[in-house]
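Example: DUF5625 domain-containing protein.
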Amino acid sequence: MVLALTAAALSSCGVAYLSRYALVPLVLPVRVQMPIDLSQAGSVAESEFIVKVPDVYRMQLNFETSRDKENNEVSKYLGDLWGDCTKGAGTIIPLHLTVSKKTAGGTKAIMDEYIHEAYEKASLSRTMDLGPGRYRIRLTNLLAHRHLQYVPVTVTLTYYRYK
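Written out as structure tokens, the predicted fold is:
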């Protein structure tokens, strides 16, 4: 009987464990990580993912920089990477974010947003409420930033918080 319950829990939530008194589901968090080249206009990061639990998820653009002297010029270009930046300081990074849900009849846009704001405190991010289902995320860079040619940038989508 326990094996049947575990199999049911695995199919609905991803993972489960048997505590002393009950079968407790553990949710496998959504974690999508994709590189994007911000030195090239039109560069795209795109991935499909599955949401099992309705909740809030966050898309975040991460810049992998260090505090050493050779990254000083990149830091000046983007704004202060280490938390001293004021709202709106730094370089505007125009992006186009689309999130669509796959349905029986095709796809439905959940989010279609042009982001036109300054980089702040080492990331740009958006949160979204997503229900269970299959999704596709696509982030397009709209402007070439030659200063970021050697800066690794990743787009991350993660399970953000419980409701």
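The domain at 29-161 is CATH 2.60.120.790 (Jelly Rolls).
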